[in-house]
Amino acid sequence: MKKAAWVLPVFLEGSGGHRTMFQNIQVLAEHGYTNDVYVEDKGQVNNDVELRKQVEKYFGNYDCNLYLGFEKIGDGYDVIFATAWFTAKIVRDIQGNAKKIYFIQDFEALFNPMGDGYLMALNSYCYGLQPISIGHWLSHKMETEFGTPAQCFDFCADKKIYKPVNCEKENAVCFVYQPDKPRRCTVIGIEALGIIKYFRPDVKIYLYGSREKGNVWFEHENLGIISLEKCNELYNKCSVGLCISSSNPSRIPFEMMAAGLPVVELYMENNLYDMPDSVVSLAHYTPESIAEAVIRLLDDEGKRSKMSAEGIKYMEDKDLDKGYEQFLEAVNKVVDNENIPMQNARIMYNKPPIMADVILNQMADRQEIVKATESREHRFIQKIKRVRFLDRSRLLHKIYNRYRSRIK
After folding, report:
1. How many CB atoms are located within 10 Å of the residue 45 CB?
2. Which of 116, 206, 229, 385 has its CA 20 to 30 A from that of 320?
3. Sheet holding 263-266, edge to edge
């Protein structure tokens, strides 16, 4: 029986990252490892018993020992896992002969402004821990920027949950709305949805992923935190899924693909190594470009059908078990002291980014309509370029509604 220790940051309800950690902890438990899990103490719970109840409430039951606080970390382990940038230093400084793995799910330096926090997170990749990442982009960064051979496992989906089901299709877009996670780019996403709602007022907008409601000015339905099964229902009834993640791909687009939902994401380096260009549309990071990518799909049923079929096909052999097998193999290579060569990941997405040509032209046309209708409102339009787009979109919406009421 081998022993593993895991050093985890404090939990967030609905955290996909923590769910992934516990799923892989369970994989080790089912293959001969005893797992001790040490969780950061930030006062959310008072003791180990409450900690277990919290884990069961948020993520389910797992075969592991749970301990509140890092000061309880013992010795005698075969392998110790760091799981966040500030835990890497803790793992580095633990004495003994244990192999040390860095379980990387995001390029966490990007969570911080360019300063101490950013550089301290970068430093965590220089401590000599062996990286195992989710997805190929992170392993590529570890190899090319930090000179560390890295292993990875594929983005997979629970095919028992995420799959096509018969339901009535809606002219709707769902967006992963998580204001508590800056990497989800909620402001840009909401601005893009505001543009979509402006030009396609009949489109229904669903937000989900957080209990926060936020300041969203257009008509929408906020579903909050929903079960995995409800996520699959949502993906099956929507026409397009929008998920933004700027520090590594999220698992959510791959779950959307498995359900047959066409996906829009950002055209950024972090998404180029794990997303084939036949199954997603990657847009330039301006709100207008994201809106254009979504509207193009909403207006093209044939394109949506093709992407849906390609997504289902791409995820056909990517059930969670495949990722678990890849993870287990990677861990055993480290524990058994096997040689780990460079992976040399290649870019999968080779199309150019979608840019906001049509949207910007339509916006110019709207301005001309308003200009011809009332000069006072036109003067407001001229000020639009000097304010942030969130306010600009609201103003355009207000002016256009006035125009429509006049011509009825």
Report:
1. 18
2. 206
3. 221-222, 204-208, 172-176, 240-242, 263-266, 280-283
Task: State both tokens at 159.
Answer: 């095919």
Residue 192, token pair as written in the block:
């893009």
First to last CA, the chain: 76
Is the pLDDT at 122 greater than 90? The verdict is: yes
- The residue length of the chain stands at 408
Strand partners, 346: none
For tokens 């220089």, what's the residue? 126
Residue-wise pLDDT for 131-176, tens only, equals 999 999 999 999 999 999 999 999 999 999 999 999 899 999 999 9
CA distance 121 to 245: 18
Which residue(s) pair with 152 in the sheet? Answer: 133
What is the gyration radius of the CA atoms in the chain, in angstroms? 23
CA gap 103, 82 in Å, rounded: 6
CA 8 to chain centre: 19
* CB 266 within 8 Å of CB 244: yes
Helices and strands (H, E) in the chain, number of each type: 15, 13
- Listing DSSP states for 369-405 in one string gives HHHHH-HHHHHHHHHGGGS-HHHHHHHHHHHHHHHHH
Give CA–CA dist 39/197, Å, rounded: 42
Q: Give the DSSP letter string of 86-106.
A: HHHHHHHT--SS-EEEEEESS
